[in-house]
Amino acid sequence: xxxxxxxxxxxxxxxxxxxxxxxxxxxxxxxxxxxxxxxxxxxxxxxxxxxxxxxxxxxxxxxxxxxxxxxxxxxxxxxxxxxxxxxxxxxxxxxxxxxxxxxxxxxxxxxxxxxxxxxxxxxxxxxxxxxxxxxxxxxxxxxxxxxxxxxxxxxxxxxxxxxxxxxxxxxxxxxxxxxxxxxxxxxxxxxxxxxxxxxxxxxxxxxxxxxxxxxxxxxxxxxxxxxxxxxxxxxxxxxxxxxxxxxxxxxxxxxxxxx
Amino acid sequence: xxxxxxxxxxxxxxxxxxxxxxxxxxxxxxxxxxxxxxxxxxxxxxxxxxxxxxxxxxxxxxxxxxxxxxxxxxxxxxxxxxxxxxxxxxxxxxxxxxxxxxxxxxxxxxxxxxxxxxxxxxxxxxxxxxxxxxxxxxxxxxxxxxxxx
Lengths: 259, 149
Fold this sequence. Notes:
- The structure holds two protein chains of two kinds.
- By secondary structure, chain A is an alpha/beta fold.
- Helix content of chain A is about 40%, strand content about 25%.
- Chain B is mainly α.
- In chain B, α2 runs antiparallel to α3 and α3 packs across α4 (about 125-135).
């Protein structure tokens, strides 16, 4: 019997931490910094001064109950939503107001919640859409099918007719085709069977091991804490607690239930 | 190593980005300017009539004509500005709506063909968010994702 992906990913997270420690990184460089971010929709404020950092090469898990502002924070980080105040700093540069397309082209990749695919296009057509970043279609296809062999079998199938897990794989394949340096993942697990979720997070661990910095938002903490180096709990538009996954694991239920 | 090179490349690309002045309400401001020009232009044009009518001095009457023409021109320019920014807002909404409806239609067809109940993340609120994400990030075409905080 093979070990579950969750256990494997936990080991992967540990290995990355050890690598960095061995490298003797004194001051860890942050690839993404959100400083005192306030944002909302029209007159309704959603984020109230959020501070968050994603160090280079690490996986940060942002956890919290529904409506905490996690997805809005990701949209702010990706340049899709302008904060009303605060700074979005990417690779050491303040990028408030930079179009999301420019950030995406540079290598900041957001995989939004809810299966980010064009449902009425085939798998191949969905992948072809990603050639706009400058890489060839063959390259995009090869990378996608290498990571997700199941997509090769489904390549002529309309994306809307794929299973939830396959659609999420396609969404990830499309995102990864851009060779991201900073990956933002929003609710990978949404609506998926636990076994598929574990499979996807095993892949996230692999991507992280290749050195991609990842900020992953999840409502359900169990599987994501296995791959994360750091975690933060967000409640009512504020980061209530940050720490190592092991530290936060015990506090999660209390935080969710408002204890 | 891939990741090291990629991160350095990423940093260089971010450093080369042109950062525009973030102007959240720029469209709204121009809409306001358009409306103001329309109203002021109209008022000036109307006010020119009694100004011209109340005098027999041809110089003053010519001033009134110039004033009226200026008012009409301002109203025309204001209408154009208003039309441009209100159309942009409408078309953005229309695009988001089209994306949402296309997604909803596909889901219905899939449900009808497979006989399965709709997906857990079926079309709901937040269509414009989802469409915005798709256009902005250039990553995905999700429609009908549930808007969440």
